[in-house]
Amino acid sequence: MNLKIALVQTDSLVGNIAANFNLIIETVVALDVDLIVFPELMLAGYPPEDLLFRRDFIIEANNVLFDLANIAPNIGIVLGFPEFDGEKLYNSAVVLSEGSVLAVYRKQKLPNYSVFDEIRYFTAGEKPCVFEFKGQFIGLNICEDVWHFDTVQTTKDAGAEILLTLNASPFHSGKAQQRETLIAKHAKAAQLPIVYVNAIGGQDELVFDGASFVMNADGEIVFRAEEFIEQISVVEFENGQPLKNVPLLIPSEGRKVTSIYKALVRGTKDYVRKNGFKGAILGLSGGIDSALVLAIAVDALGAENVEAVSLPSKYTLGMSNDDAKTQAEIMGVKYHSIPIEPAVNAFTTMLAATFENTPADTTEENIQARCRGVVLMAMSNKQGKLLLTTGNKSEMSVGYATLYGDMCGGFAPIKDVPKLLVYELARYRNSLSPVIPERVLTRPPSAELSPNQCDSDSLPPYEILDPILARYVEQDQSMDEIIAAGFSPEDVKRVISLVDRSEYKRRQSAIGIRISERAFGRDRRYPVTSGYRGTQRSLEC
Questions:
Q1: Confidence of residue 536 (pLDDT cuts 50, 70, 90)
Q2: What's CA 20's distance to the chain center, in Å?
Q3: Is domain 2-253 classified as CATH 3.40.50.2300?
Q4: pLDDT at 539
Q5: How many CB atoms lie within 10 A of CB 304?
Q6: Which residues are catalytic?
Q7: Which of helix, strand or coil describes residue 56?
Q8: Is residue 131 within 8 Å of 138, Cβ to Cβ?
Q9: pLDDT digits (tens, 9 = 90+) for 112-147
């Protein structure tokens, strides 16, 4: 018995049931297969968050199923939807065939960690689901289910010969390899072929990488879809086993930087596109962070849709201006140079009496940053283009950024990218085609808000800072644990203090693309007002 199954790795739009419905119809009528599998919550988009509290939204999603059931009577359609039974809401998958509902499965394992909070919305299902289709017994799982062997095994015990799993599994570095390794173990232990269909595309700070795959009963990959690309793939099964009848792509997960760069491009593209902006604009300083963001923006949106603005002050070095202009020319974007000194002078004059007899400090530096923010926001408003802010994770962690200044913007592409990784990504992008001037990669980083300023004047070297931040921010290690790993007590205490004091800034920062297992925002949620400062022994270091 042969069975052709289409894996539809696609990008649905959260909340737009009509658009998702039309996408499903367009896909189904174009395919000549037996069974078509779409991702988790395809009709609603993932994650719909508190839209799930809207009764009208849920009713619309459920009503659409009756229309879908009739569009391809000879093809089976499997898709995710929010199922409402009159009392409870479930994260469900439905099988439509010959004008009727053949089966409905309710997700049993509801994730409530990291970026997930499904228990807030859904009730867990309690039963496996196996349906017969053209002589094959097929089981259903949804995303988190397949990460738990007991769910896989109970589906096999219920008679499944093939397991379909619908997923909206968000990307972080190394995630695709984690999926394949764990699910291969489950497939082999249960002796059950698994078809894993994942969503792709950006949704606010999340980005879904696709990388759908098919495994045989020995846990061997026989098909793997591309990352971050909408793709429809057909895999043929013969007597319950998948055939190696399609090219097996080499995964790029071993090439960490490649996958991260693709994630940043896709996340930026979808945020701008899905939210209706005409393009993007950013301040281009001649430094490494804005250089990388410009490259990401152009790769995501096209040079014709991106503008770069240089905003030099009296402290800006000539090479910064030159490098910014050079990169803008190489990448073919519209470029402006608008000196901020007139605005800075106006503000310092206005404040002269108030500031009389006070020494210059970071206040004067922040005035410069905020003048830049006003100019960039004005251009964004006037042109309908999204302002991209260019701060990295290291800066966001320790508050090395100015509220309403360089933090101005609606989206932060590299907010979850530590400084050292910024350099890796920039070098990777230059390996594709040289767009970032070499001097930007080699000169010491500086905010250029005071004479001869370097980041190292205010922060430990990034070679020290980034590993400390990784342990404290991403791994929740204590001060004592980090010191025991070989870092100096002075550096550790200073960095932790900066991180804790900067939470109020991060709450006001633009959202950015999540590429780590612990990003600020949905992942790491600390109170702004908190008296906790670690153990007494740590405080005495």
A1: very low
A2: 21
A3: no
A4: 39
A5: 11
A6: 40, 107, 143
A7: helix
A8: yes
A9: 988 999 999 999 999 999 999 998 999 999 999 999
